[in-house]
Design a protein that fits this description.
Layout (H helix, E strand, L loop, with lengths): L9 E3 L6 E3 L4 E6 L3 H4 L8 H6 L4 H14 L2 E7 L10 H5 L10 E2 L2 E2 L22 E4 L10 H7 L4 E7 L1 H14 L3 E10 L3 H16 L3 E3 L1 H12 L1
Parallel strand pairs: 3-4, 3-8, 4-7, 8-9, 9-10
Antiparallel strand pairs: 1-2, 5-6
The chain binds tricarbonodiimidic diamide.
């Protein structure tokens, strides 16, 4: 039952229709903004494609600043594996025929291996003290991580999802978040793909059929709501 202590609902203009959320029960999750995906020489392989992901950096920075000042729970994820690769499925290791595969030595250290330079989050989006950083072995952020536990402990109902890539780890996390009962909003300019067509269609998939997987809004709309609701 609502009481004076119930945090206020705020309305976020979004597609396919406005999303109502409470700041106290909303988290920002930044997916895999790691050098290995965003910089040349990492898992993202060829230079031109990697550069396509850079468009998400500035919107993620603005989202991060707005979420922090609004007091939202902020969670960062990193895809990767331990140095012995014991936590990596053989099927995942065998996948892909690119020049650099998981565990190979590259210019930023071993690809997608915890503790290596390339595995870490880009400095522009460095986690602040106290913000959970989840190491995930899969594409989705729920698989074999403490994400569900952390969200439950904080009473979170709504996920604002940003990061890379739109159609892989962002989608996998949004799909599972949706199945687990979270209202998921993907921030259109704060996610990116090596394939512009996949990016566009992945966003369309989320909002199709009346928001079958969730909501989409741009970072300006999200930041505006976070800033106003916080004022
Ligand atoms: N984080 C994430 O999306 N991992 C990937 O492997 N993405 C690709 O698009 N390859």
């Amino acid at each position: 039952m609502a009481s004076d202590l119930t945090p206020a609902l705020v309305e976020l203009p979004a597609t396919p229709y406005p999303l109502h959320l409470r700041l106290a029960t909303t988290a920002l999750i930044l997916i895999d903004m790691q050098r290995d995906f965003l910089e040349p020489g990492g898992f993202g392989a060829t230079g031109q494609r990697v550069s396509l992901l850079r468009s998400a950096v500035a919107p993620c920075q603005r989202l991060l600043a707005a979420a922090r000042s609004a007091g939202l729970l902020v969670i960062h994820t990193r895809e990767g594996h331990g140095p012995d690769l014991a936590d990596a499925h053989p099927a995942k290791l065998a996948r892909g025929k690119g020049p650099l595969r998981i565990g190979d030595h590259g210019p930023m250290g071993r690809i997608l291996i915890q503790g290596e330079h390339g595995h870490d989050i880009i400095p522009e989006l460095a986690p602040a003290p106290g913000e959970p950083v989840l190491d995930k072995p899969g594409k989705g952020a729920f698989y074999n991580t403490d994400l569900a536990l952390i969200l439950a402990n904080h009473g979170i109902h709504t996920l604002i999802v940003a990061g890379v890539t739109t159609e892989v780890c962002v989608h996998a996390t949004t799909r599972e978040g949706n199945d687990r009962g979270y209202e998921c909003l993907v921030v259109s300019d704060a996610v990116a793909s090596y394939f512009p067509e996949f990016h566009r269609v992945a966003l369309e998939m989320i909002v199709a059929q009346g928001g079958i997987l969730g909501w989409v809004a741009d970072s300006a709309a999200v930041c505006s709501v976070l800033t106003q609701a916080n004022a």
